[in-house]
Amino acid sequence: MSEQTDSVVSVSDVEKKKWSNNVWRYGAFKFFVDFQLWLPIWVIYLNETRGLSITEITFLDVPFWLLLIILEVPTGIVADRWGRKVSLCYGAFINAVAVLVFGLAGNIALLFISYSVWAVAWTLFSGADSAFVYDSLKAAGRRDEYQKIWGRVHSISLVAHVLGLVLGAPLAAITNLWFPIVVSAGLMLLAWVVSLTFKEPPRDEEPVSYRETILNAFNVVRSKPPVYTMMLFAGFVMAIAVSFSILAQPYLRIHHGIDIDIIGFLQVPGQLVGIFAALFAYRLVGLIGVGRTMLLLPVIVLVAAIGLGSFDNIWAFSFYPLTGLVFAMSFPVLSTYFNDRIPSASRATVLSIYQLTFSLFVALFEPVLGFLADSRGFPTAYMVAAIILAAGTPVLYIIWRRASSKEVLLEQEV
C-alpha cells in the first residue's frame, strides 16, 4: 500500500514539473519573439526607405487592425479547440514569414501582404499565450503565482525589447534600414524552435466543436458584465496609449532630426520603467486594489499626452516612458482579472475578444492621430489624444465599477 502511494506521489510530482517547465520555456519563447531588431526603426524604415508619409503609415495600419478584429476570435478558437501549443507554434512560424516579407517588401502591395500575414500571427499569439501559462501553472498547483509570474514574463519581454532597441538602431546605421528587419525573422524562427518543446497543459473541460467554442465564449462574456465592461474600458485606454506611442520614432527623427544610431537608446528608458513596473505590479494591486490600479492607468497616459502636447522640444520626449509604465502595469493586472473569471475551455477565445475590442479602438484612433501629426503637427496630435482620453475614460470606468460592484454583491449573497 505504501509503495502504491509513493508511486502516485512520484508520478504527480513528475507531471507537475512538466507543467512548471512550460513556464520557463515560455519565457525563452517570449524573449525571442520580442527580441526584434526592427523595433527602433520600423516607422523610419517605412518613411525613408519605402517613401510613406506618417499619414500613409498609420492608414496602412488600419487594414492590419481590421484583420486583427476579424481573425481574433477564429484564431482564439484554434487555441481552445486544438491546443495552446499548436496556436503558439503556428504563430511564431507565420510571424517569421511576415517579418521577412516586411523587410524585403519593395512596394505597397507586398507591405500589405506582410501586414496581413503579421495579423494572422498576432492573433494566434493573443489569448493562447496567457492561457498557456495560466493553465500550466494551474496544473502544477501554482495558480496563485500567476499574476507575479505573468509580470515576470512581461519583464522578460521588455528586456528583449531593450536589447532590440539598443542593437537594432546602430545596426541599421552601419548597414541599412531593412537589414535589421531581415535578421529579426531569424530570431523569430528561434522562438518557433522553442515552442516545439512545449507540453500542452490540461484543461478543465474537453474541447468541443468550433461552433460550440465560439458560442460558449460569447456567452461567457455576455453573462459576466465585469468582464465585458473591463474589456471596453481597458481597450479604450490602451488603444489611446498605443496610438500615440506609434508616433515616437517619427517624433524623434522627422520632428527633431535625431540620428538613427541613437534613436534606439532614447526609447530605452520607457522599457526600463516598464521592467520595474511589470515586476512589482502585483504588489501595487495588493496595496491599492484592482479598481484604483485601473484608474491610475488612464491618468498616467493623460499626463504623458498633455506633456508631449504642451512642450514642443526634444525634452518633452521624457514623457514617453510613462506609456511604458502603463503597458507594463496593465499586462499582469488585466490578464489575471480576465483569467480568474473565464472557464478554461473558453479562455483563449474570450481573451481574444478583448484583443478584438482593443484592435477596434486602435483602428479608429491611430489614423486620426497620424493625420493630425502630418497636417497639424505632433503637439496637436498629442493634445487630441488627451482630449479623447479625458472624455471617454470617466464614463467607461464608472460603467465597469458599477458592474464590478454588482458582482461582489452577488458573490456575498451566494
Structure description:
The protein has one domain (13-198, 206-413): Up-down Bundle (Growth Hormone, Chain: A). Residues 1-11 and 409-414 have low confidence and may be disordered. Helices cover 83% and strands 0% of the residues. 52% of the residues are buried. With 414 residues, the protein is mostly helical.
What would a concise description of this structure say?
The protein has 414 residues and is mainly α. It has helices at residues 2-34, 42-49, 54-82, 84-104, 108-125, 128-139, 146-174, 179-195, 210-223, 225-245, 248-255, 260-266, 268-310, 321-339, 347-375, 378-413.
CATH architecture assignment name = Up-down Bundle
**Structural classification:** mainly alpha
Q: What is the CATH T-level topology?
A: Growth Hormone, Chain: A
Quickly count the helices.
Answer: 16
Proportion of beta-strand residues: under 5%
Spatial shape: globular
Are there runs of 5+ residues with pLDDT below 50, and where? 1-11, 409-414
How are helices and strands ordered from N to C?
Answer: HHHHHHHHHHHHHHHH
Mean pLDDT: 84
Specify the CATH class.
Answer: Mainly Alpha
Q: Span between N and C termini?
A: 41 Å
In total, the number of domains comes to 1
CATH superfamily: MFS general substrate transporter like domains
Question: What is the helical fraction, as a range of percent?
Answer: over 70%
Total strand count, please? Answer: 0
Largest sheet: none
Radius of gyration: 21 Å
